[in-house]
């Protein structure tokens, strides 16, 4: 059996709150970033939102950056597998059942370890920007034990979530997946995930790049920070020093990708008023990887992925559903 895409990442359940700029300022978290917190900080934030500000939870859904990417590819018709770690609590049950219903194969068995499944609190301001506060829970102990070598060996692409560099055991698992991918000719895709990751975990990312990355996903801010270039075109060109190919998103402007000739190519996107940017980059990556696995060029895969990302930012929620994907692909 062969599959299109094998992903490894954090298993998180997303809890979304619609907040004002004033309430976000009260939380103390920097707008538009992802911050890791412990259990006590997580509970304090929920108390502030629900008890002090009287804001109710607007949506609960399966999440995690790489999981969103894998789900996108699965909804497009791709065969997928996801390596992650959840506990035997109700949240873990929710996450595992969610992926199963979406036809994403996983390493998750009925007998799971005791602990707390990870959660990502997403605070969405009126301009559509999302501020993420993540409690990794048991996902922080993701390890080589969660890697399925036989499934990975059969994949066309391995997709690595950059957030995993924060955990020593997860990083070890990622290095194992890279080694297996190299051994079996599986192409390796990596996302830089967040400017905070780029700023604080440069050594870990350098290790991943030294081990071989075929395709790197990032946004403009991450690319500039990583390469040290202030100009978007210079940053895009510099990405070629780290990976065979790259896809750098430019918010609503489109993306710059490595062309077939080796030179960066701008792929425009149709403008849209964003209501919620949560999951835009994840959805984009899923669309690109599905296209590449099915033989599309990076430019064509990017153009099609723009349509998916446009839809996901035009309403609340980090993932599209099957009907939305069908509407886009059949139109």
Quick recap:
The protein has 331 residues and is α/β, with parallel strands linked by helices.
Chain-wise SSE layout:
Elements: E1 3-8, E2 12-18, H1 21-27, E3 34-36, H2 39-52, E4 59-63, H3 65-75, E5 80-83, H4 90-101, E6 105-106, E7 118-124, E8 130-135, H5 149-153, E9 155-161, H6 168-184, E10 187-191, H7 195-200, H8 202-210, E11 215-219, H9 220-227, H10 232-239, E12 245-249, E13 254-258, E14 264-268, H11 280-293, H12 298-313, H13 322-330
Parallel strand pairs: 1-5, 1-9, 2-7, 3-8, 5-6, 9-10, 10-11, 11-12
Antiparallel strand pairs: 2-4, 7-8, 12-13, 13-14
Helix pairs in contact: 3-11, 9-10, 11-12, 12-13
Considering the chains and any ligands shown, give keywords for the structure:
alpha/beta, UDP-N-acetylmuramoyl-L-alanine:D-glutamate ligase, five-stranded mixed β-sheet, 331 residues
Explain what you see.
The structure is a single chain. This protein is an alpha/beta fold and 331 residues long. The chain has a single domain, classed as Ribokinase (UDP-N-acetylmuramoyl-L-alanine:D-glutamate ligase). Helix content is 41%, strand content 22%. It has helices at 21-27, 39-52, 65-75, 90-101, 149-153, 168-184, 195-200, 202-210, 220-227, 232-239, 280-293, 298-313, 322-330; strands at residues 3-8, 12-18, 34-36, 59-63, 80-83, 105-106, 118-124, 130-135, 155-161, 187-191, 215-219, 245-249, 254-258, 264-268. The strands form two sheets. It has a nine-stranded mixed β-sheet. A five-stranded mixed β-sheet has the order 3-8-7-2-4. Strand 5 (80-83), helix 4 and strand 6 (105-106) form a beta-alpha-beta unit. The protein is globular, with a radius of gyration of 18 Å. The two termini are 31 Å apart.
């Amino acid at each position: 059996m062969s599959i299109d895409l094998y992903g490894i990442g954090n298993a998180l359940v997303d809890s979304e709150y619609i907040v004002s700029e004033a309430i976000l300022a009260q939380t103390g978290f920097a707008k538009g970033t992802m911050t890791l917190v412990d259990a006590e900080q997580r509970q304090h934030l929920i108390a502030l939102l629900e008890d002090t500000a009287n804001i109710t939870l607007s949506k609960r859904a399966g999440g995690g950056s790489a999981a969103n990417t894998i789900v996108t590819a699965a909804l497009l018709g791709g065969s997928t597998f996801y390596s992650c770690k959840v506990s035997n609590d109700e949240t873990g049950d929710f996450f595992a059942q969610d992926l199963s219903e979406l036809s994403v194969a996983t390493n998750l068995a009925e007998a799971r370890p005791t602990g707390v499944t990870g959660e990502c609190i997403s605070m969405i301001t009126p301009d559509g920007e999302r501020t993420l506060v993540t409690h990794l829970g048991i996902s922080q102990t993701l390890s080589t034990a969660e890697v399925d070598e036989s499934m990975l060996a059969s994949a066309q692409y391995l997709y690595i979530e950059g957030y995993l560099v924060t955990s020593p055991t997860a990083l070890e698992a990622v290095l194992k997946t890279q080694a297996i991918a190299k051994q079996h000719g599986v192409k390796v895709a990596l996302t830089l995930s967040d400017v905070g990751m780029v700023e604080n975990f440069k050594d870990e990312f350098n290790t991943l790049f030294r081990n071989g990355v075929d395709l790197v996903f990032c946004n403009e801010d991450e690319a500039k920070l990583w390469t040290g270039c202030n100009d978007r075109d210079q940053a895009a060109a510099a990405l070629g020093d780290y990976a065979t190919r790259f896809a750098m998103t430019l918010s609503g402007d489109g993306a710059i990708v490595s062309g077939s000739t080796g030179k960066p190519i701008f792929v425009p996107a149709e403008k849209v008023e964003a209501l919620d940017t949560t999951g835009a980059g994840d959805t984009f990556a899923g669309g690109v990887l599905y296209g590449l696995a099915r033989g599309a060029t990076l430019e064509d895969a990017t153009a099609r992925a723009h349509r998916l990302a446009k839809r996901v930012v035009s309403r609340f929620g980090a993932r599209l559903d099957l009907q939305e994907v069908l509407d886009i692909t059949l139109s």
